[in-house]
Amino acid sequence: MDQFPQCETLLLEKQGPALFVTINRPDVRNAMSLQMVAELSTVFSQVENDASIRAVVIRGADGHFCAGGDIKDMAGARGQKSAEGEEDPFYRLNRAFGQMIQQVNESSKVVIAVTEGAVMGGGFGLACVSDVAIAGPTAKFGMPETTLGVIPAQIAPFVVERIGLTQARRLALLGLRVDADEACRLGIVHQVAESEVEIDELLGHAVERVRQCAPNATAQTKALLHRVGHESMSGLLDSAAAKFAEAIRSDEGSEGTLAFMQKRPASWAASE
């Protein structure tokens, strides 16, 4: 990415193969505004075509990941009137978030979430579409929507995909909040750090593992995993075999095989 997009709600910094995206609205515990949704969508659109970026790390400023939707946006939508034939403003607001979170979910890049403090509502949904999730000791996860008289409309399907229907029911229907250890047991996050230093160590290791894996093979693998359960198994395996044949004949496949035989790191694993 030669030119980062101009963002008011996000801080962007490229470090090696990773783009670090810091949600930067600390005065509202990094609550997700419509502007933030649009900026995240723009960032993920741009990185999709940037071969130098192989991972996107999302975290929040000043000790919180994201406290959910911005109440000001909801109040603004309540004050809008829909002209005849126009979409309801609440529908537009909610659906815009859903489109963004689906985009993050389907990104060809490895998405790493570093969760601390409040990880609520939309922030919880964002954590649930990450490929690797690390929790700090202060992290609290929850779906508080039902306690506010609304529903987790856009995040619920992703939560079910993440932890299964049984556990998603308990969290959503009771509006529960869980700590980092329980989030790890449920499968919301993969690792729990006991300190800021350990967060950095786990994050550094994850980014280094991304570097060791071939970019196109990683993207193709992620796409394959997303297809499981959405199409017939025999058809999926037929398609996967064709993708495997393409991969082994590709430049990456040739380089990976040669590097293994020569007992050296593959070209994509070299430090920048």
TrEMBL record:
It comes from the Bacteria. InterPro entries: ClpP/crotonase-like_dom_sf, Enoyl-CoA_hydra/iso, Enoyl-CoA_hydra_C, Enoyl-CoA_Hydratase/Isomerase. Signal peptide: none annotated. One of its GO terms (biological process) is isoprenoid catabolic process. GO terms for molecular function: catalytic activity. Pfam families: ECH_1. SUPFAM superfamilies: ClpP/crotonase. Belongs to the enoyl-CoA hydratase/isomerase family. This is Enoyl-CoA hydratase. It comes from Marinobacter algicola DG893. The lineage of its organism: Bacteria, Pseudomonadati, Pseudomonadota, Gammaproteobacteria, Pseudomonadales.
